[in-house]
Amino acid sequence: MAKTNPPDGGGSDANENTFVRHRVARPPKEGLLKEFKSVVQETFFHDAPLRDFKDQTASKKVLLGIQAVFPIIGWAREYNLRKLRGDVISGLTIASLCIPQDIGYAKLANLDPKYGLYSSFVPPLVYAGMGSSRDIAIGPVAVVSLLLGTLCQAVIDPNEHPEEYLRLAFTATFFAGVFEAALGFLRLGFLIDFLSHAAVVGFMGGAAITIALQQLKGFLGIKKFTKKTDIVSVMHSVFGAARHGWNWQTIVIGASFLTFLLVAKYIGKKNKKLFWVPAVAPLISVVVSTFFVFITRADKQGVQIVRHIDQGINPISVGKLYFSGKYFTEGIRIGGIAGMVALTEAVAIARTFAAMKDYQIDGNKEMIALGTMNVVGSLTSCYIATGSFSRSAVNYMAGCHTAVSNIVMAIVVALTLVFITPLFKYTPNAILAAIIISAVLGLIDIDAAILIWKIDKLDFAACMGAFFGVVFISVEIGLLISVVISFAKILLQVTRPRTAVLGKLPRTNVYRNTLQYPDAAKIPGILIIRVDSAIYFSNSNYVRERILRWLREEEEKAKAADMPAIKFLIIEMSPVTDIDTSGIHCIEELHKSLEKRQMQLILANPGPVVTEKLHASKFADEIGEDNIFLSVGDAVAICSPKLAEQQA
Amino acid sequence: MAKTNPPDGGGSDANENTFVRHRVARPPKEGLLKEFKSVVQETFFHDAPLRDFKDQTASKKVLLGIQAVFPIIGWAREYNLRKLRGDVISGLTIASLCIPQDIGYAKLANLDPKYGLYSSFVPPLVYAGMGSSRDIAIGPVAVVSLLLGTLCQAVIDPNEHPEEYLRLAFTATFFAGVFEAALGFLRLGFLIDFLSHAAVVGFMGGAAITIALQQLKGFLGIKKFTKKTDIVSVMHSVFGAARHGWNWQTIVIGASFLTFLLVAKYIGKKNKKLFWVPAVAPLISVVVSTFFVFITRADKQGVQIVRHIDQGINPISVGKLYFSGKYFTEGIRIGGIAGMVALTEAVAIARTFAAMKDYQIDGNKEMIALGTMNVVGSLTSCYIATGSFSRSAVNYMAGCHTAVSNIVMAIVVALTLVFITPLFKYTPNAILAAIIISAVLGLIDIDAAILIWKIDKLDFAACMGAFFGVVFISVEIGLLISVVISFAKILLQVTRPRTAVLGKLPRTNVYRNTLQYPDAAKIPGILIIRVDSAIYFSNSNYVRERILRWLREEEEKAKAADMPAIKFLIIEMSPVTDIDTSGIHCIEELHKSLEKRQMQLILANPGPVVTEKLHASKFADEIGEDNIFLSVGDAVAICSPKLAEQQA
């Protein structure tokens, strides 16, 4: 069978001058252990994380191992003054941005402002030693703060039991860290890929709206405000308080500084060189407005102020964690949810900037770093920290080179905690609200949503589902919707693979989808179907039924057009990368159904795994090796003359 | 670009004599509504269930609609005496098999024997009117009985609160029916495909062992027996009772009749014409042993007997269902689990026999029939009924033609209930145990397990996981393991798609996996990689990283062999059936990474959906339409001379 002259003088995708017909090869059989090893490698170590360890001495291996856990050892040796300059500038810039944000975000988590600042001190230091991203800016972020606040609040009232609430928040932070590190350590990092990009865009947009709406309390100076986060409840609160609850002085302060922040943002966007304008605008707002309130004593007019922030750096909080009881299990649950969202955000940021600067990020190692940083954070009075989109972008644009910018930021935050916090006493809450509103607006990515709409309507549905879920119901429900829709899409993919009828492109021997290439001509008496997926238990019944439906439809068409009846069914198996027992059953049943109708089943180009399994299951013998071809072209070349014979 | 002479005189998969080069076609754009409609159709109506309704008058449509719900109307008109003869014979055969089984299975569910018989009366009648399988035999089955018994027992002790236990069992049956019907009605039947064949084989085998072990109580005449189902607890009970708890008279009766049953089974297996021997053997055993005990009064010697079965057909049980309270929610949960297992078994049977006789089964309609039958059953004192593997096989071999055989069986069971039940008084429990053991042994499918081992090692792991989970822990845990492993396999499939390096088969223009075809030669300076899956959010990062790893490895090889550096990366996209926003990002990032290394990314043969999305996202413009080819051959034909130029 190795060399035959295909009867139609064309035959196969082969070069005409030689008429070579190759057999479908059975790949060399691998041992069980080797097969198992290769599956494990592709699943958990596809990026070959140990490749640098190969062919090294033992001592070198230990050094490499330590360096793998603490990348700082690697890059510190190549550190120089030029890099330091960039890192100091960017570190100062993100510090000025993070201090006011931290104070505001802590309030989203129903915590005192100081905990926001604490979380910008210890976690960035830990990350700087262990993380591999050069651009990420670590600290509290809006969405995770809101999520943590909402989830913890449902368990304990933060006003009635502030101490228990705080302990629950630390417990959740601890377990968030444990989960993150465990995912990385077990190399299960790919699990976060199950939250689809589209769902994340929708979720983030919805969370941004929700956070902005929550700020209306501080922005309008309302005293009685709903605890719910959905837009209906919030609007009810806002307009219910309209008659006597709004404070005009607060509104004036808030609105003027929000305008200032938005203008600064616009300037930064228009001229990339002025990126520092929006970065320092929040701190300027805080300084100016605090001074203004201090001078005018506007707080006596009902303008709410921060009042008091404890001085000093993070106290130890080891004893505050719950390790038994109801709050322990709740802490695990909340930590799991918030930790995953934090992880998704941080890894997305790390990957984005790594791609921009073309360096590699090991997702799993990154997770270990983020997890460790949160575990350490939970022991030092921090709540969940992660990578911040807005601050990382500023960090990048300010010219950071390494994680030293995070160290610089942490030092500035620590100095602030030690020396400057009393000065925040007269900072009006309205300013913090304005800063948060201007920050979270950047999370609403309308361009991405439009692109998603253009590319994939189902993705857009996922995006909108998450968005409206967050805005109209709650953050958790929105997150749940995102996850469910993401999974539904995966399930849809594996249960309903595509199939296509192929035809021959004119004057070639190429067979292509007749719907994509209207030129491609079907061959009378032969139906060619391509199955576009591995055939597994999850789709084998569908595949069989769908092929039979194609057959039925094509037979009806052939009858209507008075064409010869279909005698050969060729399945193009190039895209069928794998098959399991259910899949083999499916093809066997198809073969039997066709036999009863006097049709011949033919397989074209099964891959290595499929070929192996066709033989292992003896189906290759049942159908006959003669009916398995290297390509559709080969198959047609052999079937056509048979067909002519039958009709003669 | 439509017609060019490829410079190497070969070019593309194309026929040599004409040198045609086709463009990659952008399929005609579909409207949003049409696109949505086609997704919905493929997902929920892929078998075109309404095709018969097309082009019919309104009255005809109504008639067809009624017939769709009650297929009996369709086939009853073509019913004739010849078919009746086959159905009566097979109906009588399965009745003789089901009566002793029913009594035994009811005990597995911790219910009185009569409930087993009830469940073989009403449900088969309902199914006969609504079901579309011609061969399935309806009634209680061992595995579902055991599952229901185990789950209900964990909530209520059947000895202490028999009335509440019974009510819970009916409630669970009701909701099992509701779930089954709902799945079918919502056309979500494909969800049961998520339990993989391998997991089912393992689960069934484990359940068979567990059931057989449970029978040791009746078989050895042990009075005190564990309530747990795992093998360790059971063995502990058995040997703990060895000294004084075994009853030798019971063992003699049980062992001799078990031998008889197994011999009968062996005869039936050896000679297919004697299929009726194993089918009637149980009834003969019951009659003979009952008579024997009645004569010898062996029950006075400690041989346990059935004692009493109420006379009369099913009483109404509408008032017994729980519709509120704790048992209501437990009923929903238990019904959901047991219902899904029952459904999986019934649909698998229906499909198997439909394939053997080559008729079509509509899975969703089948589920509505099975669900309705259980809902009606729960209102008439039945517990969950489904299709029985062993009885369906007997039904098929006895020559059944339609569901009339189920009607015949139901009538015989009803007559038994009305007239014969008092005669079962002296039936020894050991006989029932022997009948169940001999019945469930058929569920242990060693051949299937061996085949699974040969075909797919991961599948085998799933199979064994389910098996050992059931045998060593419990039925629920075994089921959970099956589901989890099945899902893990699906997730593995979507997160870790295969990729392959392609080479050119000698003297052809065909490009194939170099691992499968060691002959296939790589082309210096060009790396060709095939991605074997749709690129979605769940795998886009993996795909990008894996391609970069291939590139790194091939570059190292090229360097070591002193070959020209790689300048072109061709991605063969034939198997990439779809791409989402994350996938587009992945390719964009890959393109950027390659640009930085002075390499050119080239796409070969993107399918219709992918082509559309490449254009919608403007990536086609970014990479340049010139770098998208119809086939790998075309791409190589264009790249090779460019490469030669660069090197010159």
Textual characterization of the structure:
- The structure is a homodimer of 648-residue chains.
- Chain A has a six-stranded mixed sheet with strand order 4-3-5-6-7-8, sandwiched between helices.
- In chain A, helix 22 links the parallel strand 5 and strand 6.
- In chain A, helix 8 (162-185) crosses helix 14 and helix 8 runs antiparallel to helix 15.
- Chain A folds into two domains: 81-307 and 316-491, no CATH class; 496-647, STAS domain (Transcription Regulator spoIIAA, 2-Layer Sandwich).
- The first copy, chain A, has 648 residues and is mostly helical.
- Helices cover 60% and strands 5% of the residues of chain A.
- The model of chain A is unreliable at 1-19 (pLDDT under 50).
- Chain A is elongated.
- The first copy, chain A, has helices at 32-44, 58-69, 71-76, 81-108, 113-118, 122-130, 142-153, 162-185, 197-214, 216-220, 231-240, 248-270, 276-296, 326-357, 363-379, 389-397, 404-420, 429-440, 446-455, 457-473, 475-495, 540-560, 581-596, 608-616, 619-623, 632-647, and strands at residues 138-139, 386-387, 499-504, 511-513, 526-531, 568-572, 600-604, 628-629.
- Chain A has 26 helices and eight strands.
- Chains A and B meet through helix 1, helix 19, helix 20, helix 21 and helix 22 of A and helix 1, helix 19, helix 20, helix 21 and helix 22 of B.
